[in-house]
Amino acid sequence: MRTTPSLHHCSSLAIAALLLAACDDPPKPAPAASAKVEAAPKASSTSPLANAIASALIAPAASDSAAPPLASASAAPSASAAPSASAASSASSPPKKAEASPSDGLPKSKNGVLPAGAADKIVKKGDRALIKLVEPGDEPRSDLSYKLAKGDKAPIDLRMNVKANITINGSSLPESKTPEMKMTLDLLIGDLKDGDAKVDAKLTSIGVNPKPGDNEEVVKMLREQLSSTKGITIGYFLGPKGQVHDVKIDMPGGVPAEAQQVMSGMNQSFEAFSAPLPKEPVGVGGKWQVIHRLTSAGVDILQSSLYTLKKRAGNEITVDVSLVQLAAEDAVKAPGIPEGGVARIQAFRTGGSGSSRFDLTSAAPKSGNMTISTGLAIKIEGGASDGDSTKVDSVVSVKVARP
User: Fold this and answer.
1) If you average pLDDT over residues 159-180, what whole number do you get?
2) What is the sign of the dihedral through the CA atoms of 339, 340, 346 and 348?
3) Does residue 228 register a pLDDT over 90?
4) Contact predicate 169/388, CB 8 Å
């Protein structure tokens, strides 16, 4: 999680999924349509398997470094298929150039899971993200770099909504929605070291905004879970090109283990408050691809994001982003896996898109919105839960703004 970019994805999903799995009153499977009564699923939404599945959901972050808050996401793009070319051109007109895609250059995968070692050939765990210029854009072109000054402060509000459809051992549960979650952070720029700025982010408020029809018990549970995290501070370094590294979370005393797990899954979200930038000058319409490794709740992920510069006015830029994620391996290494068992990813699909506005003199985005769509299927091999399976399809929507 050292160089991940993205508040516009993964962490948010991990948090929401964990909170969803923590519900004390899980939804019951819908009754079968036929008169025959089907057996109850072997695992409930609070079983170790379900908790492991929920914990494994990723968003950026979650990730590329910045936080382009999401716009609505279309169906998750396939990371294994090349972008389709336009219809065959006539003899009188040349073929159109294929549109750039975040899937470009990624290795082929089976159901979203890469062969062993394939991700390492692109970027290894712990290495900084790869940033590649795809198109320079229109003239005039200019450098994009952060220019941060010690002592600068910036507050940021984040709102998140999550909905999920869960299937356990073939039995589908009713769609689950979490009440809107809101948090406010204060970002402070500290010392500069070798051109990188030390950023300290403090969580000053966190809670839920219930709406009519929200489950009161879920609202209460979320408030209790979230309230214990207030006061947590997150420190990291931000480079001129938006590279985030050396993220550290300082937990105040008394934070329960569940909340600590939630906050640990938020690393990519905090790293996402900045945009990874190319070294080459770019103009409006310029595109660059960012590929990096991240780990969330035990899932090793290779993420590719495609950024497009839509507008620039002085130090303020507006970028669109689309992303895809692939599982770097099929094993899920997370707490909650039944003893003696191994959780294997059967299918993994994540795609998203969004737009954000950044001030290159600030560590926090001005505004943004993003939506991430994730599909995850896991099966337990070995142990008492051998053969148990869970599928989760979720959509996470995030909005970021200055208060």
Assistant:
1) 90
2) positive
3) no
4) yes
Q: What is the pLDDT of residues 245-266, one digit of tens each?
A: 888 888 766 666 656 655 655 5
Tokens of 1: 């999680």
DSSP codes joined into one string, 133-147: EEE--SSS-B-----
Structure tokens at 363: 């560590």
pTM of the predicted model as reported, rounded to 2 decimal places: 0.78
Cβ contact 305:287 at 8 Å: no
Rounded CA separation 5/123 (Å): 14
pLDDT at residue number 375: 93
Q: Give the whole-angstrom CA distance, residue 332 versus residue 300.
A: 8
pLDDT for 5 equals 34
* CA 342-249-178 angle, 5° bins: 65
Question: Nearest Cα to 43, choosing from 333, 385, 345?
Answer: 385
d(CA 309, CA 20): 36
DSSP codes joined into one string, 191-260: EEETTEEEEEEEEEEEEEE--TT--HHHHHHHHHHHHTTTT-EEEEEE-TTS-EEEEEEEPPTT--HHHH
Structure tokens at 357: 């506005």
Distances (CA, A) of 140 to 147, 253, 284, 293, 312: 20, 52, 8, 33, 11
127 φ, ψ to 5°?
-75, 155
Angstrom distance (rounded) from CA 293 to CA 18: 21
- Reply yes or no on whether the pLDDT at 371 is more than 50: yes
C-alpha to C-alpha distance for 360 and 147, rounded to whole angstroms: 6
pLDDT in tens, 62-114: 333 333 332 333 333 333 334 444 444 444 555 566 789 999 999 999 999 99
Asked if 176 contacts 166 with a C-beta cutoff of 8 angstroms, the reply is yes
